[in-house]
Design brief:
Radius of gyration: 16 Å
Distance between the termini: 34 Å
Strand content: 25-35%
Order of helices and strands: HEHEEEEEEH
Shape: globular
Strand order of the largest sheet: 1-2-3-4
Length: 147
């Protein structure tokens, strides 16, 4: 959590619930785009057309807790959150420099393009992906419906 600025740490602490602990927090949005636009007919038909992520469209930082993922954006007063559950990771992209993106959902535009939403352009993407997968497994095993 030391990679966050004091203002970001203060924002994160205000968003945490009572008894909630942070497993990992870091800035995001400095990496490469998730996908280059695909213009082929089959890519559009199969829903694989994605828009590159611009620096203004990604969040400033994220936090992973034992129960949810929080995504903080300077343009929004409240964080976007996803509760940890099986199948929440829609796509994982790892680049040669170790950065990457973990996509939780896609925003569908009127023209049919999909833009990814999630932890985009994060450093140490493999480490974050492994931590997130472990947290998802732990949350599932702690749930009352797991056997």
């Amino acid at each position: 959590m030391s990679a966050l600025s004091p203002t970001q740490q203060q924002t994160l602490n205000a968003a945490l619930r009572e008894g909630e602990t942070v497993l990992h927090a870091a800035p995001c949005g400095s990496g490469t785009p998730v996908a280059a636009p695909k213009s082929s007919f089959w890519a559009r038909l199969l829903g694989k057309k994605a828009r590159p992520v611009t620096a203004g469209a990604v969040a400033d930082f994220f936090a992973i807790t034992a129960k949810r993922v929080l995504l903080f954006n300077a343009a929004s007063s409240s964080p976007r959150e996803w509760f940890l559950m099986l199948g929440m990771i829609q796509d994982f992209t790892l680049h040669a420099d170790g950065s990457g993106s973990i996509v939780f959902e896609y925003n569908l535009a009127a023209d049919g393009t999909r833009s990814p939403i999630g932890l985009l352009g994060i450093a140490n993407a493999q480490q974050v992906h492994t931590l997130l997968a472990s947290a998802i497994d732990a949350a599932y095993n702690a749930s009352p419906w797991s056997v």
